[in-house]
Amino acid sequence: MATEWKNVRQQIKAFKNYINSLSATAKSTAAYSYVLTTADIDNLLSQKGNGTRLAGIRIYFGAEMVNGDLVPRMYAVGSDLVGSSYDDYNVPVSGIDLETAPTATANAAMPLKCDGLPCPTACGKVNVMNS
Predict the structure, then answer these.
(1) Distance, CA of 43 to CA of 64 (rounded, Å)
(2) What's 52's DSSP letter?
(3) Which of 10, 31, 93, 98 has the smallest number of CB atoms closer than 10 Å to its CB?
(4) In angstroms, what CA-CA distances link 75 with 12, 117, 118, 122, 126?
(5) Which residues partner with 60 through β-bridges?
């Protein structure tokens, strides 16, 4: 069952209030939402390179500490339908520690990802979802 729009709006408002409560330094690095462009989506879904598209996109939520505040981040990766579940495409099960591997090694071992465009920086007019 899909979440009702009134609940969506309440949750977005609560998240925006959280972002607004951060320190000025943390708030300046935070985003209320993210945009995935058509090009981002096409790149994620077509990364198999054989003409077939992946079945979906998984959104991961992370966070980093900025000036003592927890600042949320979003990352999107392609996923493929395997049986009845969606698996991240081409993400190794083991064999690499992404936190300690050199950047070039980690990047070479992983598939495409999208960081999204942060809002409000990359987003336009005010509407009932983001006001």
Answers:
(1) 26
(2) P
(3) 93
(4) 18, 10, 11, 16, 24
(5) 75
d(CA 16, CA 32): 6
What pTM value is reported for the model? Answer: 0.85
Output the six-digit token pair for 18: 């959280």
HSE-up of 55 (CA within 13 Å, CB side)? 9
**Contacts with 14 (C-beta within 8 Å, 6 or more apart), sequence order:** none
Contact 112, 78 (CB under 8 A): yes
Q: Which amino acid is at 127?
A: N
- Domain edges within the chain: 5-119
- Structure tokens, 91: 């993400």
| Distance between CA atoms of residues 59 and 88, nearest Å | 10
Is pLDDT at 68 greater than 70 in this prediction?
A: yes
Contact of 30 with 72, CB cutoff 8 Å:
yes
How far out from the chain centre does Cα 68 lie?
22
